[in-house]
Amino acid sequence: MMKTHTTDSPIHHFKQQLVQALLLEAGILFVISPTFIDEPSDINLFGGKVIILLIAMIIWNAAYRFGFDYYLWNNKKTLNKTLSYRLIYTVLFQVGVLVISTPIMFSIFDSSFWHVVTADLWFSLLVFSYSYITNFIYDRCL
Which of 54, 50, 48 is nearest to 24 (CA)? Predict the structure, then answer.
């Protein structure tokens, strides 16, 4: 059962959305990001830009999750996400990730357009899977 955090609706406070986003992004940093690092020197090369990307993703994640829950509560009077809502949530979230991450990925990689787009799509696919699972667990636990 989902816990109620306000007196008029069970939408999580934005602060809690931010905590969930931080946990998600920390997991991405330690689980998914290493797949894009070929050697230790890559960490220094990407360092600042990866931090910018992660901060942008934390803000996007928290804002999007809050907005999606707000929409569900106001239009469906529930926060229970069916499989179709979870897929819609995750796909739309990933579209936002692509819009935000693509320019940053271009600045990280000094490569061709298609190499960067391919890397960003693979990254997004990994994040899609990871975020679907972690958001499902988060919704069930809180």
Answer: 54
